[in-house]
């Protein structure tokens, strides 16, 4: 291990204390003098005198050794942490952690598991370590996170879904500053899943997709569709596609039967398919906006039930695209509907994929019976991915057994 060397006594003391807090049971915490940092004899004399002052107070011990007949200083060892805290006027991390968590511990309305989680945070902070993405002593961040988690729990528990909301509006409604959710984007889902596991989205998602599943997105996307559409029973003019406010999606319906329903992950591919393949409006095409929000997902399921036609999904061929497909597949299966991949298979991956280093998470793997399980396994063993915009749109191949009748 590389020696930790210092030419400043205060920096040396803080480093000793950092390591003491990280491992309070450690009995041998050492530091060394950085002779190169001491530019002249006067600087070295001042440094050594400062060391002797701390040693005299009992905070450290300084090793003396004889080198070639000359006495020299060796390592500096932590002897008494309390003396060092007082010398640099530093509050011990465990004291700061306890003080920072006092308000959180008496917060009303927290679930029973909250105290154990707060103990985890206190233990980490007392060792100078972050927990749930919260830096030691960040009581304001913890308070805002708990406000946001509580507001999300109310939203998740509401039956039938709620209209999408953007990050900043949601933050204000939760009682925090408008940028709190953006600042705590990785913290909030992790705390939520520990505090309210029964209400958390079931899929293993990144933070943005996780929030989108609860309808909290950076900017709420309209529900964009292509096909023979009616709104509140009124047939619409024959446009390439239509966009409606997501909270009014229930008014959108089919004016005629369709050959198939296709959900598309990315906007460019949606527009191209609507213009180049679905110009006769013989199919229902729905733009998911990436990972679909709960309100979008509810409309996808409702329209799929009404369409009673083969259902396909077209997205990126990567771990994110497979996650989206699996989420749609699982949700539709709950209604007895089968989802099929479109332009998302092993042959397309190997025929058009490009090399990209990435980390595949085991938790993201679709179940063995999933229609994209083979694709996931190909992604695991290859270094290939494919953005769906790289392909031109095509009409799905429909087999007789594909129908969801």
The Rg value, from CA coordinates, equals 30 Å
Number of spatially distinct domains: 3
Name of the CATH architecture of the largest domain: 3-Layer(aba) Sandwich
Terminal Cα span: 67 Å
Largest sheet: 6 strands, mixed
The stretches of 5 or more residues where confidence is low (pLDDT under 50) are: none
Mean pLDDT: 89
Helix content: 40-55%
The third-level CATH topology of the largest domain is Dna Topoisomerase Vi A Subunit, Chain: A, domain 2
Number of strands: 17
Structural class: alpha/beta
Number of helices: 15
Report a brief summary of the structure:
The protein is an alpha/beta fold and 405 residues long.
Task: Characterise the protein shown here.
The protein has 405 residues and is an alpha/beta fold. The chain has 3 domains: 5-87, Arc Repressor Mutant, subunit A (Orthogonal Bundle), CATH 1.10.10; 93-217, no CATH class; 223-402, 3-Layer(aba) Sandwich (Dna Topoisomerase Vi A Subunit, Chain: A, domain 2), CATH 3.40.1360.10. The protein is 41% helix and 15% strand. It contains 15 helices and 17 strands. The strands form 5 sheets. A 6-stranded mixed beta sheet has the order 10-7-13-12-14-15, with helices on both faces. It has a 4-stranded mixed beta sheet with strand order 1-2-4-3, with helices on one face. Helix 13 (319-333) links the parallel strand 14 and strand 15 (339-341). The chain is elongated. The model has no long low-confidence stretch (mean pLDDT 89).
